[in-house]
Amino acid sequence: MGGLACALAFGKKGFKNINVYESAADLGFVGAGIQIAPNLVRVLDRLDCWKGSVIERDATNVQSASIRDGATDQELAHVDMPDIEQKYGFPHCTGHRASLAGGLYDACKKLDSVRFNFGVTFAGVEEFGQSGKVKFSLQPRQGDPYTVETDILLGADGIKSATRYSMLKALKLDAEVEDTGQAAYRIMLTREEMSPYPDLLALLDDNGVKRWIGEKRHIIAYPISSHNIYNLSTCQPDENFASAPSAMYTTKGSKVVMKQVYADFAPIVQTMLDLVPEGEVCEWRLRSHKELPTWTHGRVALVGDACHPTLPHLNQGAAMAIEDGATLAEVITRVPGGGSDPEAVTKALKVYELLRKPRTTTLVDLAAFSGRTLHLGEGKAKEERDRQFAAAKEKGQPVPDKWASPDVQKMIYEYDCLKDAAERFDELYAGLT
Ligand SMILES: Cc1cc2nc3c(=O)[nH]c(=O)nc-3n(C[C@H](O)[C@H](O)[C@H](O)COP(=O)(O)OP(=O)(O)OC[C@H]3O[C@@H](n4cnc5c(N)ncnc54)[C@H](O)[C@@H]3O)c2cc1C
Question: How confident is the model at residue 248, as a pLDDT?
Fold first, then answer.
């Protein structure tokens, strides 16, 4: 997501020679739903990648959030969201990852300046470009490795980022990937599969997001693909990966185990889990990273999950990656001297970090905090949480599920990363020695 956004944003700013290197043979979309929050729609709109795009066409405009007790299906809090667009200028949508990535890709393909190189794996940075060019090595699927020179290298290579590894190694810094102790099943049910069940069809046809919560577990669910697919994303203690090699991130799960994990959830949830075809249970390890001391070195910078991986409980991971890409293009466009001075570019990349790191750190921490609150077991803390859920039924009150809380929505949704970059670039740049 971050890589596509960088390519599109730089292309739109008129940069002439943009290469995207992707290790997969094609965009290879892992099917799953994604929430497309107003702050993300705002950036897509600025990149001419919203109105009339496949992203907008396939999106569901979210009108409400319902937080429910997993065991009883009783509603703990209900947040009406009919006025999100009116408040923030852009709607809150849900969509398919394939539409979001596909829309960004289609927009990139309209630009002559952007070239995609699939089946090519980034292998490491050789020079970070403090004085001369940045040099890095690539390994194509077929053929020998080769070195590429560039003015700027942006590492949007996800949670397992080899760019981050290269950078930290060069800087002799230690910051490790961390286990969150949580894992997720990602499930998509088709209209056809749901059609025998009127209560499930009602979920599919609704413009709402549902979250069923229980001790140490929850399931978030919403319609995607023009209400033709119901997307469920779960979160439970990581049992299967705990003893697995650290490089493992996804695995085929067992339907029996999945059903056991949610055995005490309400019948409506059981019916949906029963519909998952045998052999199609996929479990994701939810990993995180110690906060990085730096996101940039020379003229190399990290983007998205490579520098701020997050638990998905605020649904902002892709949004933050795409905001990073748009901010980078905004910042680099403003480099004094038009980019001819490597030192000025290095400083501008630091401005990007100064603009983005405090905000992404806040959201990453808030997502983890919200997860802890959602997963509380019996006791005083849960009683207090449920009291707050009940109070939140009144319009405008804070909701313990931070994703659905109007105060948190305001903080996240009204933020305009491009305006922020434009307004603060000069001051932040001047403050760097
Ligand atoms: C269960 C779950 C639910 C989520 N729900 C939401 C949501 O609702 N809303 C939201 O905004 N976010 C959500 N996210 C988070 C979101 O998916 C990620 O934060 C986002 O994809 C990060 O984008 P990225 O570009 O940084 O990394 P990625 O999307 O991981 O992309 C990295 C790319 O780099 C490529 N790559 C990796 N290594 C190399 C290499 N060495 N050489 C070349 N290419 C390489 C990969 O193949 C991949 O294409 C969710 C995540 C999970 C796990």
Answer: 60
Alpha carbon of residue 73 to chain centroid: 28
CA 315 / ligand 1 centre spacing (Å): 12
The arrangement of secondary structure in 179-288, i.e. its CATH architecture, is 2-Layer Sandwich (3.30)
Kind and range of the H or E run holding 20: strand 18-22
Question: How do residues 382-405 score in pLDDT, each as one tens digit?
Answer: 999 999 999 887 777 889 999 999
Residues with CB under 6 A from ligand 1: 1-3, 21-24, 34-35, 121-122, 156-158, 160, 162, 184, 186, 233, 284, 286, 304-306, 312, 315-319, 321
Question: Hey, what CATH class is 2-62+81-176+290-430 in?
Answer: alpha beta
pLDDT score at 244: 59
Mean pLDDT of 276-294: 88
Intervals of CATH 3.30.9.30 along the chain? 179-288
* Cβ-proximal residues to 380 (8 Å cutoff; 6+ apart), any chain: none
Listed in sequence order, the residues at least 6 apart from 70 whose beta carbon sits closer than 8 Å to its beta carbon are 212, 213, 214, 217, 218, 219, 262, 264, 265, 266, 269
pTM: 0.95
Q: Is residue 375 within a helix (H) or strand (E), and if so which, with residue range?
A: none
Determine which residue's CA is closest to atom 28 belonging to ligand 1. Answer: 158
Model pLDDT for residues 140-175, shown as the tens digit of each residue: 999 999 999 999 999 999 999 999 999 999 999 987
The encoded tokens of residue 413 equal 């949704």
Residue 30 pLDDT:
65
- How far apart, in whole angstroms, are the C-alpha atoms of residue 176 and residue 172? 13
